[in-house]
Amino acid sequence: MTGGTDGHAEDHGRVYQSRGDQHITEHHHYRSEGAEHGGPDSVRRPAVGRCPVALRDRGEVMERLRESVGAERGGRVYVLYGMGGSGKTAVACALFDEVTGDQGRVGLWVNAADRASLRAGMLAVAADRGAADGELLAARNGLRPAADLVWRYLDRSAEPWLLVLDNTDEPEILRDGNWLRTSPRGTVLVTTRRAAARWWPGAELQHIGVLPREDAALVLRDLAPHSGTPEQAARVADRLGRLPLALTLAGGFLSHQVIDPWTMDAYGDQLDGDEGVRLIDRGAEALSQADPRHLVGLTWQLTLDAFEERGLPEAAALLRLLARFAAEPLPLAVLNHAGIGAVLPRARTETALRALLDQSLSELVDAEGTRCVQSHGILLDSVSAATPADLVPALDTTAVRLLDAAVPAAPDAGPHDPRLRLLVPHAPAVLRHIGMASAAEALAVATRLAVALHRTGDYLSARETARTAADLARRHLGADHRMVLAARSRAGRALFRLGRYAEAEAELRAVRDIQERLFGAGDPDTADSCYGLQLVLANLGRREEAVALLRDTVAGRRSALGPAHPLTLRARAGLLEMLPAADVVTEEGGALLALPSECERLLGPDHTVTLGARHNHAWALYLLGRFEEADRGIRQVAEAYVRRFGPEYPVVLAARQLLSRTRAALGHMAEATALMTDVVERRERGLGPGHPFTVASRRLLDSYRPG
Fold it and tell me: Superkingdom, according to UniProt (predicted)?
């Protein structure tokens, strides 16, 4: 095997290229337990139909298995585990073919999907290794221990062997009779979905996951080479989650379109939603229809049915709940909430999650230093599509309730919080799944998440969260719904912070106009959009318009929320920054300059609004030429900001920029230059060199430097 990329498939052949995990088409024939079973036709060939025409770049797992078996070391058990469709059997088949061909080792293949198949297959192994008909008959009739008979002949085998126990998804049946043993004469290789180490004492476990992106694209290209470019194949592979089973079915579908061939792009465009799962399964060969393991819409149903049979219905309930969220890491804390009780007993959540982990339906991952659970996207789509309609309302309500509990009830300014970013993909996912009854509540949660992200300085995530949520909720609530407009307003505020002033103005002005028409000028939502719009206009140099809007915002908030509300005080603090020096002194009869003391009395000295008022008060003092007072005030504010937010937070840099101004005004040019140099460097790293804030900071720094 050279690892080249020139493979192709003919007729029903399959080509798989990977440096990781593999999957091939399999044909299994199952009988219910207790049915008459005469045994498999052969244990000398993998019971998987046609093996791949070419299997290249098998990766580290194949190399490890190959070396171990080739080293003539017996007495070992290797367990390949992973979710359904991940290619465990393909790896086993490739190893089987190698050791029986190149090494001359005896290969023995047993379907261990159920007790009857396991027992019949293992007795056939004993027959292959020399057991007499009388011995086999006695074992079949229960007159002698069947497992002991099989392993006695395996231990006596004149030839070294590789025994594959395929589809061992119920390891409990191995313990009944102690079917899984070791022997110095051979190696045992098990494929299973069951990941818990307790099932495999003494075995070496190897996880089989999805394919690397490049190799997943190659699988599609090998199966359907004329359907698209490598990049188009890679995009489709990403949409399929790079799951080998899904890739195989997709490639099979594309390769068999004759009258009106599909392109990769056309196929990818049809993969969204429940119909996407059905489209994938259309690639199954006719003989595979009876086998759920070869259909992504059904392969995991085997496990869900097993949960019910074992008295673990809460595991299926938890998986259906996870299917309301995204196929991204979900913090475990989200599930640890009383609200989950509407779907499954909270006390059984741990048991349910362990069952999903054990069956490789989910996995624990560490993301941003947070313990999370994650499931494959195709699995979640399949489970969602198969969820009974009568369960959907409770699942929707619970998903929204859990997400609501995970988002701060009253988002405040603060340093970057990685836990918030982990929730970003889940808010739109919930909105995609839910119906009209829960849409407004879900949108409110998503918008609050966008506010929380905004206030930690993650403006890009805030914008995407708010924009996507508004677009998704519009289909249920309508474009003029109050919550849809509020989400759009929040997206506009984030656009401003991203330096996209023209887009921000257009969005905020459009939303403000609709809110004013529908709710009135004094409505709190209208005032919020006015406040955001005036920030944009001020940074565009249109100060008079901005001041007029800000005064309207102050009046509206004072009327609707009261004079002591934090939002009212925040708007008044904005006047300290926006008004010319002469107007600051006379505004509100001269009371505006006393606003920091008023905020401290009403909200406390460490409240975000109080700190903002003190910040803007220092700016007003600077404009009034009271440089000593401004310098003392902004230094204290900057120090408080750093303690609370860290050195990179946007408002910290704004405060340090003002401090550089006051130091320069007092003649301390070296210190002023050092401060601004640091601000420019941090803004370039955080916002980019072309952001308006960065450009303004660099311009100020340049002004400090002589000619």
Answer: Bacteria
